[in-house]
Amino acid sequence: PYTGPSAEEVLRLRKEFLSPALFLYYKKPVMFVEGKGQYIFDEKGRRYLDGLGGIVTISVGHCHPHVLEAVNKQNATLQHSTTIYLHPNIAEFGQKLASKMPGDLKVCYFVNSGSEANDLAMLMARAYTGNYDMIALRNSYHGGNASGMAATSHSTWKFNVPHSFGVHHAMAPDPYRGPYGRNDPDAGKKYAADVKNLIDFGTSGQIAGFIAESIQGVGGVIVFPDGYLKHAYEHARAAGGVCIADEVQAGFARTGTHYWGFETQGVIPDIVTMAKGIGNGCPLAAVVTTPQIASVLAKRIHFNTFGGNPVVCAQGKAVMEVIEKENLQANALNMGSYVLAGLERLKEKHNIIGDVRGKGLMLGIELVKDRTTKEPAKSECAQILETCKDLGLLLGKGGLTGNIIRFAPPMCINKGDADFMLEVFDAAFSTL
Ligand code: PMP
């Protein structure tokens, strides 16, 4: 049993010694001290279904034995940082990652966070093309560092400092709130026309690149209409740009049908960034690109002290092995489809549910006060999250106003967990 400080004591320490910008999800804060598979335990030993997976980081399950074995072995053998000497782990992990990539995407860079990965990707785009302007999407999240914040498009995440030079934000291809809905077969092409418009009217006509999440996560699980990325990539490439896919949330089999989110749109990017689920809980992120683009970075020294250290590479490789061995992609598809069908039924019953959507185990439920005006139901969303937590289910929140519930659990959930999720959900909505 847990013997450390109480939640109240930890809260007090946090208030006194940690950043005042840190936010807590719940009015009644919870503290977690242990995790196993898809479950997480508070200090009193109470079990919760981890429906957010530590913000989409726990891909194969908490403390997975195969992952632990790999990382514990490496921890006991050599903890080291740097790439200035040879080590097998980084080379083998790079080879494994490249084996999952289409086209000529095979050169891997390792860093420590999604923000760093996107920063590096944008550096590559600019260094390779000699252009500066980037096109990103409204409602995106790409990081909290200067360049990531520039690419991000939510006022809530952006500080009022000069970070945004050169990034232009095109219309979010949101079939629920945008002008072109799911019943429009040309919606993808129409939304992508805004990328061309922005290039023509907002830049010199030459750009460094286009960056987009394959499914917008923080923005509230926005699934782009078919054909969107294909057309957007065509416009970006015609203006001299390279295309960056941010797979930080959608990658590593989470969408169920494909290993990478961009594959659901039938495109091959020039640069792919990844983090979160790649490490199943450790600080590991990567950028994968083509040898041609990579050659440009060799013109200067590029270095990252902890990027690709032996411990995280052992962990990353073990995570990929588990996804394969346990068929977690198929499970993400089966369980995701099952939950989505259940959510569709709940939508019939509860008027506050405006939209349900997602792919595999990256699902979103958008809450509205009125289905016609689509006025966001923000406080109700917070209340539902709190009730679900009290009933043993953790969920995420997304969207500019925080009115979208996110479900992105470890990909090892089973049918019992899916039924539990739907039951808790139904009960929580019934309390409103
Ligand atoms: N890209 C996406 C799509 C993300 O969701 C996030 C984190 N929420 C990031 C980048 C930044 O990752 P990190 O917090 O590891 O820097």
Question: Notable features of this structure?
Answer:
single chain; 432 residues; Aspartate Aminotransferase, domain 2; globular; seven-stranded mixed β-sheet; binds 4'-deoxy-4'-aminopyridoxal-5'-phosphate; alpha/beta
Textual characterization of the structure:
- One of its GO terms (molecular function) is pyridoxal phosphate binding.
- There is one protein chain.
- By secondary structure, this protein is of the alpha/beta class.
- The chain folds into two domains: 35-60 and 327-424, Aspartate Aminotransferase, domain 1; 65-325, Aspartate Aminotransferase, domain 2.
- The protein contains 13 helices and 15 strands.
- The strands form three sheets. A seven-stranded mixed sheet has the order 4-10-9-8-7-5-6, sandwiched between helices.
- The longest helix is centred in the C-terminal third of the chain and has 22 residues, at 328-349.
- 4'-deoxy-4'-aminopyridoxal-5'-phosphate is lined by residues 113-115, 118, 141-143, 213, 217-218, 246, 248-249, 275.
- 4'-deoxy-4'-aminopyridoxal-5'-phosphate binds next to helix 5.
| pLDDT < 50 stretches | none
Please tally the β strands and state the result: 15
Terminal-residue CA separation:
36 Å
Helicity, in percent? Answer: 25-40%
Largest beta sheet: strand ordering: 4-10-9-8-7-5-6
Family: Belongs to the class-III pyridoxal-phosphate-dependent aminotransferase family.
GO biological process, one term: L-alanine catabolic process, by transamination
Cofactor: pyridoxal 5'-phosphate
InterPro entries: Aminotrans_3, Aminotrans_3_PPA_site, PyrdxlP-dep_Trfase, PyrdxlP-dep_Trfase_major, PyrdxlP-dep_Trfase_small
